[in-house]
Amino acid sequence: MSIAEQGVAIAEAPSDDIVLDVRDLQTYFFLRRGIVKAVDGVSFALRRGEVLGLVGESGCGKSLTALSIMRLLPKGSARTIHGEVLLNGEDILEKTPNEMREIRGRKISMILQDPQTSLNPVFTIGEQLREAIFRRTRGRTREVMREAVAALRRVDIAAPEQRLGQFPHQMSGGMKQRVVGAISISGRPEVLIADEPTTALDVTIQLQYLKLLKRLQEETRMAILFITHDFGVVARMCDRVAVMYAGRIVECGPVDQVFDNPSHPYTQALIASVPKMTGSTERLYTIEGQPPSLMDLPVGCRFAPRCPYADQRCLAAYPPSFTVGAEHTADCWRMTAA
Q1: Which residues pair with 252 in a beta bridge?
Q2: What are the residues facing 103 on neighbouring strands?
Q3: CATH class of 1-95+238-275+283-300+321-338
């Protein structure tokens, strides 16, 4: 089935196939200097067996969106002030801390960016993996040990019985990333959030890890929210892609539609910034200017100061989401003339 056909199938899927539904999520930092609107009205839905890519520049709110969904915000200044995060129809923003501890790992799990900081350096790999498995199964030590070995084998770690007794510093970056993945999926979650899981890996290991994630996703039919900067990763991994800028999703749609017909000027600029393997290029394309301050956001389109097509409408009001194609939307006033 082609990506386009998958997009049509998704559009026709029943609503009960949606496992994660994020609606108008707003998470702000309340600082002495002012309010930082880091996530400001993010909405998307994720279906079973689907991979949704979330892309955008550093600081646009991708990771904070994931942490808001997981209820793992930095203590003190960060708060989710509005919105819903429906997991199988239940709003997990309304859950108590104890209820969330039961949900994390079992129903929704997350792979963090840096495996070095995700693993506890004073516990062995086996101790950390067995703890995650025991929370789900409450099984006997021998059964938990057997499943821990199987979990490492599932992520293609050689000699898993020996690796269980090792500490994180005794493993390479690629192996630690695989261990983090094994811990994340050991609870057999319905939703996996992968926050730039290939950032610390070299190119060859990246490809292996992406193939591994894709295979595990196909075997378990878990839904994946894949956060990345890399459009090449999006093309390989994702069914749909959401482009984020200054706390908002500005374009969302099936991967082939967004790549073939990018409709928001920011998406067009991001794709144009990717180096081409064919032809000669004197200078790489760059996006002029800087993203707006999240403490002083413009009234209109947030990309307008950097957009070559901006007019008075763009400066006066933020555009609504216009339909471009099947499940393809873009927040741009230029769509009114399309």
Answers
A1: 242, 329
A2: none
A3: alpha beta
What radius of gyration, in Å, describes the C-alpha atoms of the chain?
21
pTM of the model: 0.88
Domains of the chain, residue spans = 1-95+238-275+283-300+321-338, 113-188
pLDDT in tens, 126-179: 999 988 888 777 767 788 888 899 889 888 888 999 999 999 999 988 888 889
User: How many CB atoms neighbour CB 131 within 10 A?
Assistant: 16
pLDDT value of residue 8: 37
The answer to whether 93 touches 80, Cβ cutoff 8 Å, is yes
Cα atoms found within 13 Å of the Cα of residue 156, Cβ hemisphere only: 12
> Quick check: 4 pLDDT over 50?
no
Nearest to 10 by CA among 198, 207, 218, 223: 223
Degrees, nearest 5: CA angle 103-104-105: 110
In whole angstroms, what is the distance from residue 71 CA to residue 20 CA? 14
Question: Of 319, 226, 330, 320, which Cα lies nearest the Cα of 268?
Answer: 330
Q: Token digits for 196?
A: 């730039």
DSSP strands (E only) in the chain: 18-31, 34-47, 51-55, 78-87, 90-91, 108-111, 191-195, 223-228, 240-245, 248-254, 322-325, 328-330
Tokens representing 133? Answer: 């498995």
Q: To which H or E segment does residue 305 belong?
A: none
